[in-house]
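Sync notes, pocket subgroup
Present: LS, DG
LS reminded everyone that the earlier model was apo-only. Rerun requested with 3-iodo-tyrosine included. Inputs:
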Amino acid sequence: MDNTMATDQDGFIPLKWTEHSPEAMLTLAEANYAELALRRTTRHFSSRDVDRRLIEWAILSGSTAPNGAHLQPWTWVAIRSDELQLKLREAAEAEERKTYSERMPEAWSEVLAPLGTDAIKPHLTDAPWIVVLFKQKKRQRENGQWGPTYYTTESCGIAAGMFIQAVHHMGLVTLTHTPSPMGFLRELLDRPAHEEAMLVMPVGYPADDATVPDIHRKTLNEVAVFFDDRA
Ligand code: IYR
Protein backbone atom coordinates (compact mmCIF):
# COMPACT_ATOMS: atom_id res chain seq x y z
CA MET A 1 0.00 0.00 0.00
CA ASP A 2 2.72 2.45 1.01
CA ASN A 3 4.62 1.50 -2.09
CA THR A 4 1.64 2.22 -4.34
CA MET A 5 1.19 5.62 -2.80
CA ALA A 6 4.83 6.47 -3.25
CA THR A 7 4.86 5.50 -6.92
CA ASP A 8 1.82 7.69 -7.51
CA GLN A 9 3.87 10.66 -6.43
CA ASP A 10 5.59 12.57 -9.23
CA GLY A 11 9.32 12.00 -9.40
CA PHE A 12 9.23 8.72 -7.47
CA ILE A 13 9.83 5.20 -8.80
CA PRO A 14 9.54 1.82 -7.06
CA LEU A 15 12.53 0.83 -4.95
CA LYS A 16 14.58 -1.98 -6.45
CA TRP A 17 15.25 -4.39 -3.62
CA THR A 18 16.00 -8.09 -3.27
CA GLU A 19 15.04 -10.01 -0.16
CA HIS A 20 17.51 -12.60 1.16
CA SER A 21 16.62 -15.34 3.61
CA PRO A 22 17.72 -14.69 7.22
CA GLU A 23 20.44 -17.36 6.82
CA ALA A 24 21.67 -15.85 3.58
CA MET A 25 21.76 -12.40 5.22
CA LEU A 26 23.94 -13.72 8.03
CA THR A 27 26.29 -15.33 5.53
CA LEU A 28 26.49 -12.12 3.48
CA ALA A 29 27.00 -9.97 6.57
CA GLU A 30 29.79 -12.17 7.86
CA ALA A 31 31.48 -12.42 4.47
CA ASN A 32 31.36 -8.65 4.04
CA TYR A 33 32.89 -8.17 7.48
CA ALA A 34 35.59 -10.76 6.74
CA GLU A 35 36.52 -8.89 3.58
CA LEU A 36 36.56 -5.48 5.26
CA ALA A 37 38.53 -6.82 8.22
CA LEU A 38 41.37 -7.56 5.80
CA ARG A 39 41.60 -3.92 4.69
CA ARG A 40 44.73 -2.22 5.94
CA THR A 41 46.31 1.14 5.31
CA THR A 42 49.87 0.79 4.12
CA ARG A 43 52.40 3.50 3.36
CA HIS A 44 54.28 1.24 0.97
CA PHE A 45 53.04 1.35 -2.60
CA SER A 46 54.35 -0.32 -5.74
CA SER A 47 54.67 1.89 -8.81
CA ARG A 48 53.03 -0.83 -10.91
CA ASP A 49 50.46 0.74 -13.19
CA VAL A 50 46.72 0.52 -12.54
CA ASP A 51 44.07 0.59 -15.28
CA ARG A 52 42.28 3.94 -15.29
CA ARG A 53 38.92 2.12 -15.51
CA LEU A 54 39.48 0.76 -11.99
CA ILE A 55 39.87 4.30 -10.66
CA GLU A 56 36.74 5.31 -12.54
CA TRP A 57 34.77 2.46 -10.94
CA ALA A 58 36.04 3.41 -7.49
CA ILE A 59 35.01 7.03 -8.02
CA LEU A 60 31.58 5.97 -9.29
CA SER A 61 31.25 3.67 -6.25
CA GLY A 62 32.15 6.48 -3.85
CA SER A 63 29.67 8.72 -5.60
CA THR A 64 26.77 6.38 -4.75
CA ALA A 65 27.03 7.66 -1.16
CA PRO A 66 23.95 9.05 0.57
CA ASN A 67 24.44 12.79 0.81
CA GLY A 68 22.79 16.02 1.95
CA ALA A 69 19.78 16.98 -0.21
CA HIS A 70 21.25 14.87 -3.00
CA LEU A 71 23.56 17.71 -4.01
CA GLN A 72 26.44 15.22 -4.41
CA PRO A 73 28.88 17.83 -3.10
CA TRP A 74 32.11 16.18 -4.20
CA THR A 75 34.76 16.46 -6.89
CA TRP A 76 37.30 13.66 -7.30
CA VAL A 77 40.55 14.73 -8.94
CA ALA A 78 42.40 11.67 -10.24
CA ILE A 79 46.08 12.18 -11.01
CA ARG A 80 48.39 9.91 -12.97
CA SER A 81 51.25 12.28 -13.73
CA ASP A 82 54.89 12.13 -12.61
CA GLU A 83 55.18 15.90 -12.80
CA LEU A 84 52.02 16.70 -10.86
CA GLN A 85 52.61 13.95 -8.30
CA LEU A 86 56.08 15.34 -7.60
CA LYS A 87 54.70 18.86 -7.18
CA LEU A 88 51.97 17.54 -4.91
CA ARG A 89 54.46 15.56 -2.85
CA GLU A 90 56.82 18.52 -2.45
CA ALA A 91 54.00 20.84 -1.38
CA ALA A 92 52.48 18.25 0.98
CA GLU A 93 55.84 17.47 2.55
CA ALA A 94 56.56 21.19 3.08
CA GLU A 95 53.34 21.52 5.09
CA GLU A 96 53.81 18.22 6.87
CA ARG A 97 57.35 19.11 7.96
CA LYS A 98 55.91 22.12 9.75
CA THR A 99 53.05 20.03 11.13
CA TYR A 100 55.29 17.30 12.53
CA SER A 101 58.01 19.61 13.83
CA GLU A 102 56.07 22.69 14.99
CA ARG A 103 52.31 22.37 14.88
CA MET A 104 51.66 18.92 16.31
CA PRO A 105 50.93 18.95 20.05
CA GLU A 106 52.50 16.18 22.12
CA ALA A 107 49.13 14.48 22.71
CA TRP A 108 48.89 14.03 18.96
CA SER A 109 52.44 12.83 18.25
CA GLU A 110 52.02 10.36 21.10
CA VAL A 111 49.20 8.51 19.29
CA LEU A 112 50.83 8.76 15.86
CA ALA A 113 54.22 7.41 16.94
CA PRO A 114 53.23 3.70 16.91
CA LEU A 115 51.81 4.12 13.39
CA GLY A 116 55.14 5.22 11.93
CA THR A 117 53.81 8.26 10.09
CA ASP A 118 56.10 11.18 9.38
CA ALA A 119 56.49 14.15 7.04
CA ILE A 120 58.05 12.08 4.24
CA LYS A 121 55.40 10.94 1.80
CA PRO A 122 56.96 8.61 -0.80
CA HIS A 123 53.55 7.09 -1.56
CA LEU A 124 52.60 10.35 -3.29
CA THR A 125 55.14 9.64 -6.03
CA ASP A 126 55.27 5.82 -5.78
CA ALA A 127 51.57 5.12 -6.30
CA PRO A 128 50.37 5.10 -9.92
CA TRP A 129 47.30 7.18 -9.02
CA ILE A 130 46.46 9.88 -6.51
CA VAL A 131 42.81 10.71 -5.98
CA VAL A 132 42.10 13.98 -4.19
CA LEU A 133 38.60 14.41 -2.81
CA PHE A 134 37.30 17.97 -2.73
CA LYS A 135 34.14 18.96 -0.88
CA GLN A 136 31.94 21.53 -2.56
CA LYS A 137 30.99 24.00 0.12
CA LYS A 138 28.57 25.90 -2.12
CA ARG A 139 26.49 25.18 -5.17
CA GLN A 140 25.25 27.36 -7.94
CA ARG A 141 21.46 27.60 -7.90
CA GLU A 142 19.38 27.62 -11.08
CA ASN A 143 18.90 31.38 -10.69
CA GLY A 144 22.68 31.78 -10.77
CA GLN A 145 23.01 32.66 -7.09
CA TRP A 146 25.23 30.67 -4.78
CA GLY A 147 23.63 28.57 -2.05
CA PRO A 148 25.09 26.30 0.62
CA THR A 149 25.49 22.55 0.38
CA TYR A 150 24.32 20.56 3.40
CA TYR A 151 26.12 18.05 5.62
CA THR A 152 28.97 18.46 3.19
CA THR A 153 31.69 16.93 5.35
CA GLU A 154 29.48 14.02 6.37
CA SER A 155 28.48 13.39 2.75
CA CYS A 156 32.06 13.45 1.51
CA GLY A 157 33.22 11.34 4.46
CA ILE A 158 30.69 8.65 3.59
CA ALA A 159 31.68 8.88 -0.10
CA ALA A 160 35.34 8.47 0.83
CA GLY A 161 34.47 5.40 2.89
CA MET A 162 32.66 3.83 -0.03
CA PHE A 163 35.54 4.68 -2.36
CA ILE A 164 37.98 3.03 0.06
CA GLN A 165 35.76 -0.06 0.24
CA ALA A 166 35.61 -0.23 -3.58
CA VAL A 167 39.40 0.02 -3.84
CA HIS A 168 39.80 -2.76 -1.28
CA HIS A 169 37.18 -4.93 -2.97
CA MET A 170 39.02 -4.74 -6.32
CA GLY A 171 42.26 -5.84 -4.67
CA LEU A 172 44.15 -2.56 -4.47
CA VAL A 173 45.24 -0.48 -1.49
CA THR A 174 44.79 3.15 -0.59
CA LEU A 175 45.81 5.49 2.19
CA THR A 176 43.91 8.49 3.54
CA HIS A 177 46.51 11.22 3.65
CA THR A 178 45.51 14.52 5.21
CA PRO A 179 48.18 17.12 4.54
CA SER A 180 47.41 20.09 6.71
CA PRO A 181 46.63 22.80 5.83
CA MET A 182 45.38 21.64 2.42
CA GLY A 183 44.91 25.00 0.72
CA PHE A 184 47.77 24.33 -1.72
CA LEU A 185 45.75 21.57 -3.40
CA ARG A 186 43.09 23.92 -4.73
CA GLU A 187 45.70 25.99 -6.52
CA LEU A 188 47.82 23.07 -7.69
CA LEU A 189 44.80 21.21 -9.10
CA ASP A 190 43.06 24.28 -10.43
CA ARG A 191 39.86 23.92 -8.43
CA PRO A 192 37.39 26.78 -7.83
CA ALA A 193 37.18 28.77 -4.59
CA HIS A 194 34.06 26.99 -3.30
CA GLU A 195 35.83 23.62 -3.29
CA GLU A 196 38.01 22.53 -0.38
CA ALA A 197 40.37 19.55 -0.46
CA MET A 198 39.51 16.97 2.16
CA LEU A 199 41.52 13.81 1.51
CA VAL A 200 44.48 12.75 -0.61
CA MET A 201 44.29 9.06 -1.49
CA PRO A 202 47.10 7.30 -3.33
CA VAL A 203 45.74 4.15 -4.98
CA GLY A 204 47.71 1.20 -6.27
CA TYR A 205 49.24 -2.18 -5.54
CA PRO A 206 51.11 -2.58 -2.26
CA ALA A 207 54.91 -2.82 -2.56
CA ASP A 208 56.21 -6.41 -2.40
CA ASP A 209 57.74 -5.65 1.00
CA ALA A 210 54.83 -3.53 2.28
CA THR A 211 54.35 -3.54 6.03
CA VAL A 212 51.62 -2.31 8.34
CA PRO A 213 51.67 -1.53 12.04
CA ASP A 214 50.70 -4.44 14.27
CA ILE A 215 47.50 -2.91 15.59
CA HIS A 216 44.19 -4.38 16.65
CA ARG A 217 40.65 -3.26 16.14
CA LYS A 218 38.35 -2.65 19.08
CA THR A 219 35.86 -5.42 19.82
CA LEU A 220 32.12 -5.03 19.31
CA ASN A 221 31.65 -4.44 23.03
CA GLU A 222 34.22 -1.69 23.00
CA VAL A 223 32.64 0.18 20.11
CA ALA A 224 28.91 -0.44 20.51
CA VAL A 225 26.10 -0.11 23.03
CA PHE A 226 22.78 -1.86 22.42
CA PHE A 227 19.41 -1.12 24.03
CA ASP A 228 17.72 -4.32 22.95
CA ASP A 229 14.76 -5.43 25.07
CA ARG A 230 11.93 -6.09 22.59
CA ALA A 231 10.46 -9.53 23.30
N1 IYR B 1 48.24 14.83 8.42
C1 IYR B 1 49.38 14.06 8.74
C2 IYR B 1 49.36 13.51 10.11
C3 IYR B 1 48.50 12.33 10.38
C4 IYR B 1 47.44 12.48 11.25
C5 IYR B 1 46.68 11.43 11.61
I1 IYR B 1 45.20 11.67 12.97
C6 IYR B 1 46.96 10.15 11.09
O1 IYR B 1 46.18 9.06 11.46
C7 IYR B 1 48.02 9.99 10.22
C8 IYR B 1 48.78 11.09 9.87
C9 IYR B 1 49.69 12.99 7.69
O2 IYR B 1 48.84 12.76 6.80
O3 IYR B 1 50.75 12.41 7.77
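DG: The first strand starts at residue 74 and ends at 79.
LS: Residues 82-103 form the longest helix (22 residues).
Action: DG to write up.
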